[in-house]
Amino acid sequence: MDRLNMRNRPLQIGILGAANIARNFIAGVAPSKMLTVAAVASRDPAKAEAFARETGVPRFHGSYEALLADREIDAVYIPLPNSLHAEWAIRAAESGKPILCEKPLAVTGKEGRRMFAAARANNVPLVEAYPYLAQVQTAKLRQMIAAGAIGKVKLIRSSFGITSVDPANIRLSPSLGGGALLDAGSYAMSLIRIVAGERPARVQATASFAANGVDLTTIANIAFPSGLLAQLSCSFETGYHRHALIGGDGGVIETNFLNHPPASGPAILQVKRGIAFGAAFEPLDVPDGNGFLREAESFAASLSNGPVQWTGATEAESLDILDSLDAIRASAQTGAWVELSE
């Protein structure tokens, strides 16, 4: 689509859904001069009105369709349950609205491809929202990897765990795309894919499952065509942790790849240069900041100044992440290695 002209006003964003993540997004982007949340929609008109009043959003719609038909809305943010991402991203594309869609982009790689196909067919951008990718912490990580600060990367370990035991939580709903892998695991897999810079070749996984079939803890081995090896772990059964170690033949990097530091602790990015046994880690200074704000402003900038302004995942990276999650999920059922098609 033609680049949006936002010289005279901020980007007008509409939100599909009125869950807690939408509330946090609204609060996060409130300071922005580049964009504003102009409307919110819920399938329950009363809920939409109450949510809009609570969050200070000026307009509300009693259906998702009504928001997509709102001519004053420039773009949409989709923080709906995972199982609804594909349907409403496609419908947003067909309405001519650029789309910022929460991770995971979809439940499967097949769904993700349908979403990108719809975006291309309607000439609108579609991007996947991982707030940590917009952080300075991640930008510095990318720079160090590209500059060879730890030599050639040989090993990546990426782990994310939280406690989620309430059966009413959508994170544990099979019909809504629940499970640790699609939630915390999508973060861990995205970090692995971004650092590796290539599509995995094959995966092998094991998992523990709830009675309803969703995974509660998943661990995966991931092999890449270059010979790089990675390990992913994610869980709904542990205390909060979020950590990645990247080992190269010339050093090591550690990061907690946070979405919104310092809300969940200080941002940590440290590098050990060299291979000596006693080498010390050098902590790098990285600023705090709200990931929703940085991500949304990157999205707004990409709409007005071109896709080079987008700091998040590319289409290829988003699809590789989904295909990897598909393969991990399949492998966890049998424990066998699963090949990813090219």
List the helices and strands and how they pair.
Layout: E1 11-16, H1 20-29, E2 35-41, H2 45-55, E3 59-61, H3 64-68, E4 75-78, H4 85-94, E5 99-102, H5 109-121, E6 126-129, H6 136-147, E7 153-163, H7 184-196, E8 202-209, E9 215-223, E10 229-235, E11 237-248, E12 251-255, E13 269-273, E14 282-283, H8 291-305, H9 315-334, E15 338-339
Parallel strand pairs: 1-2, 1-4, 2-3, 4-5, 5-6, 7-10
Antiparallel strand pairs: 7-11, 8-9, 8-15, 9-10, 11-12, 12-13, 13-14
Helix pairs in contact: 1-8, 4-5, 5-9, 7-9
Structure description:
This protein folds into 2 domains: 11-129, 3-Layer(aba) Sandwich (Rossmann fold), CATH 3.40.50.720; 133-293 and 321-339, Dihydrodipicolinate Reductase, domain 2. It is built from 9 helices and 15 strands. By secondary structure, the chain is an alpha/beta fold. It has helices at residues 20-29, 45-55, 64-68, 85-94, 109-121, 136-147, 184-196, 291-305, 315-334; strands at 11-16, 35-41, 59-61, 75-78, 99-102, 126-129, 153-163, 202-209, 215-223, 229-235, 237-248, 251-255, 269-273, 282-283, 338-339. The chain is globular, with a radius of gyration of 20 Å.
